[in-house]
Write a structure and sequence with these properties.
- This protein is an alpha/beta fold.
- It contains 15 helices and 14 strands.
- β6 and β7 form a beta hairpin.
- It is globular.
Length: 653
Amino acid sequence: MPKRKFVNVPEVKSIKVESYPLFNGVFEYNFKKGLNLFIGTNGIGKTTTTHLIIFSLIGNYNNQYGGDFFISRNKLKNDNTGITPKVSLEFSVNNIPFKIVRSIKDSLILHLEINNETIGKEKYEEVYKQEILRYSGFNSFDDIYRIITLFLIREEEGNYLIWDNFGVDQSKVFRVLFTYQGFDKDYENLSKRYTESDTKIRGLQDNRAQFIKRIERLENDKEELISTKKSVQTKRELLEKNGKIEDKILDERSRSLTIKEDLEFLTDHINEYQSEISTLNGVIDENTEKILFIEKDFYDEIYNSEHVLLSLHKLEHYHICFHCNNKIGAARAKSIIQKYRSNECPICDSNLGIDETNKSSPEDISEVEVFKSQILSSKEKIKELETNLESHIIDLDRKQSDLEKLNLTIQNLYVSLRENQMKLNEIIDPKDEVTDFDIQIKTLLKEVKIYDDEINEVIPIRRAILEELTSKNEYLNKSILKYQKDLNEIFKSFTKDYFEGECELVVNDKKPSDFKLRVNSFIPKFEGKARVYSTRCSTSQRLFLEYTFRLSLLQLYCNVSKSSPMLILEPSEGAFDLANTTFLAETFKTASKEINLTVIGNFSKPDFIKSLAKNNQGIKKRFLNYLNFGILSENEKKRMKTYRDVLKNAGLE
């Protein structure tokens, strides 16, 4: 294989947005090494910022940002000022500085600098594409776009890279980032050539099969005519055949309607199960929040330390000792909590001296038990619903397959009906028909010979392409295995505390749809089970695994390529409980010591913002506050003091 040389991913340095009505005035930010923190309310333009970064790099590639994409996010459609809204992006590729300014309305390049040299206006597009591909080593703009959108930028409701189409997206990322330059281009070309040759052979074989069927039918008709002797008898037989075919069509169409009704029934139930699961998850989140509120009220009367509150929460719900962080028995944990509730010290049994008049009432404790019971009941119901959902999905796939086969059968019956009708229209004396059949069969056999020659010519070509593609695929799979140990070391360092045990990446060998070969991809394994599907994890687990997989993959790429691209994550921190929210924030902080990371958050979880900022030196200089330039609704303006208080408590203002 050629000497390894990694592609160079663009490293974003700064962004500047001017005259864009979504923002007040000029919005500008210089990205720093390590952790960058973007905070704002929902709908204020945080996600749009990520799209503007992608847009700056690739423009309106494949009409990705065509039409009203950015217009629909602001007042551009009604803007008659004549001022051009624009976005400026500074980045480097293989240490070569780039600066590009694009019009947000039409994606045209307004200004371009490469290696501190201004490029002539008439050559903007041509020179930009040529130079960014030359310095980066990417094969195409499509590769740049896919690496950024599949891997380096993830919106809150973004794709899952750790669970994709049986390794298709992971395979693409590894081919581009972790093999030698040009490997992915060769791999894609071979895949395309194999598909083209295979499609050609299948098409030729299908056409040949049609001729063979026609020959067989002609031979059968010939024998039938010879045996009947009389044309009137032949006509009678054809009419009887048509009657049977028509009856068969009616029967099959009736079956088709039944299957369609079953599909509608299954689809409705699948939607109901999914809706009910979503509702139950909402009940769990709501009851968990109520428990935390009561617990906080209770424990605030004993201690005001946030550390103690978190420790008691861990002891109550996860049976984790707050001194040594080890698991203890449920009975022991319950005994300790009971002593706290009884105003007794769990170590020396002395009275804690708490004012009994302010303690939480027994009714509050009872409410906690009720909420816990409701959570347990909801989880059991979700488990039952997921089992039913999986069963219905399997039934749905089977029914859809049956319907496709049935439709094909009906189509073939109509073909037979038309052919018999044509025979009825052409019936003459049987003796004359025999010679005509022979002529037709001889002509069709010549056509079959032509198809055989073409097929035999393409088959060796397809075989040679497949052998070369197989060799490339084996190299790719070995490369993935080669990096497994290093990737796992990074991944385990991020996940060990969260899962309180070993969580690792294992190789999953699967054959993607519409692909001839099997490819390796990584999936998580914890509690002794490989999680092939994301549904085998809770919402918070699969989100945490997705984030840490991307962090690990980028750190591995930075280690081997010696480059420092930016990973931008918009996490769903609202899906995490209090303890795990802290774990998530600490994981991001730890990762940012090795890679460049931008975290985009909102005000839904103040503890998340506070944990990210806590003990993070210089965080104010790496913090972008969208409240300072974003446009707020009237309702959001009323909550401005609350937002400012959150930032103040986090030490960001």
